[in-house]
Amino acid sequence: MSATAIVGATVVTCDEEAKVIHDGTVVIDGTTILDVGPRDAVATNGATLIHARGAILHPALINAHAHLAMTIFRGAADDRDLQGFLERIFPLEAQHCSEASIAAGVRLAIGESFLAGCTSALDMYFWPDVAQAVAAEAGFRLHNGPVFMGFPTPDCPSVETQLERFTASPSPWIVAHGTYTLSVEELKALAALRLAHAARFTIHAAENTGEVDTVLEMTQKTPVALLDDLGLLGPHSVLAHVVAITDEEIARLGATATIVAHCPLSNLKLASGICRTPQLIAAGATVALGTDGPASSDDLDLYTAMRFAALIARGATGDATALSAREVLEMATINGARALGLADTLGSITPGKDADLVLLDGQSAALTPSVDPIASIVYAASRADVRDVWAKGRQVVANRQLTTIDLGRAVAEVRELVATWRESDLA
Ligand SMILES: [Zn+2]
Fold first, then answer.
1. How far is the CA of 359 from the centre of ligand 1 (A)?
2. Span 4-59+355-402: which CATH code?
3. CATH for 61-340?
4. What is the tens place of the pLDDT at every residue in 48-96?
5. 3-class SS letters over 381-420
6. For 183-218, how does the pLDDT look when each residue is reduced to its tens digit (9 = 90+)?
7. pTM for the complete prediction?
8. Domain residue spans in the chain?
9. How far is the CA of 54 from the centre of ligand 1 (A)?
10. 50 C-alpha to center of ligand 1: Å?
């Protein structure tokens, strides 16, 4: 494959110094970033040139908590709290989830994600192998695994079956639904499995006070304390939400360098509360960013999630410096890479890393002028500004068009699928 050079852009690297290179050039060779620097200092001999003067180039965004296939349930459970949402969603899933509906839902979700500058996700849903096949075809980096829940699910009769599937699969992920949907014994088995396979671990935790009360009643411990006792906190663990927690729990999440997947949009929509991200960061936890599923948030747009993350931290603390634009952009990039265990290969524009890049439109009104490009991305950019996207060097969005997914087909597929469901199902 010949090299491609993106020339003259404002390169927001998200590297350790958060370097911004004005009039910069990035060379992609195959799947990898070959060189990054000021335009005059980077050799582009023989490369295909993409002129990007005035445009912002940033690392592709990483979704640290999603249920991609739930595009098929978008709008099906509005205006409920978490418990009301689950009461509505679980029966819908039992009735309508199948290999075919998962494939259709994931295809649409990946198209939507690419168009919103996101090329990777940590996903939790049924038929993970079906989702993987769709993702591989599209060029999307999907991290998932068999989902552990303590009752029969559309793709699995029992935790025992999932344990067998995990052992037989190459997945490095143990995907547990929650401390309220698994027994302590089952969680203990997962903790042992994680150790035996040196696997990464993800789970919903402390999403709202109702969940904490349920887990307290079941186990006499809070979700975070229970996970701590089981050895399930640490840099290998990604806890989604982490809203209803105490100061002591924040200190433990920090001391163990646990990763939190902050999902501001679903937390607000379900009235769950606000994750105390500035305190978590100050304590030493890594905070990444997720959209959660499109049935509770309702889209897969990390630009919106970034802006909400920045603003609710200020609203909640009364401190305009509670969370910087840099910290928020890092949540959606390098910290997302840390969540995936890929900090060495993803999450910043650095030579040797995978070429996962987003070029924003240089003619965007909302990005003009751009005094601080990092602030522009967090406070002003939207997915409407995404012009080109590369995933592992492959251009998956070219001049606002998907290249690996037929969007018209993906939209039609989901519409036809949902049209076959009885009206009462979605009333
Ligand atoms: Zn979730």
1. 29
2. 2.30.40.10
3. 3.20.20.140
4. 999 999 999 999 999 999 999 999 999 999 999 999 999 999 999 999 9
5. CCHHHEEEEEECCEEEEECCEECCCCHHHHHHHHHHHHHC
6. 999 999 999 999 999 999 999 999 999 999 999 999
7. 0.97
8. 4-59+355-402, 61-340
9. 37
10. 38
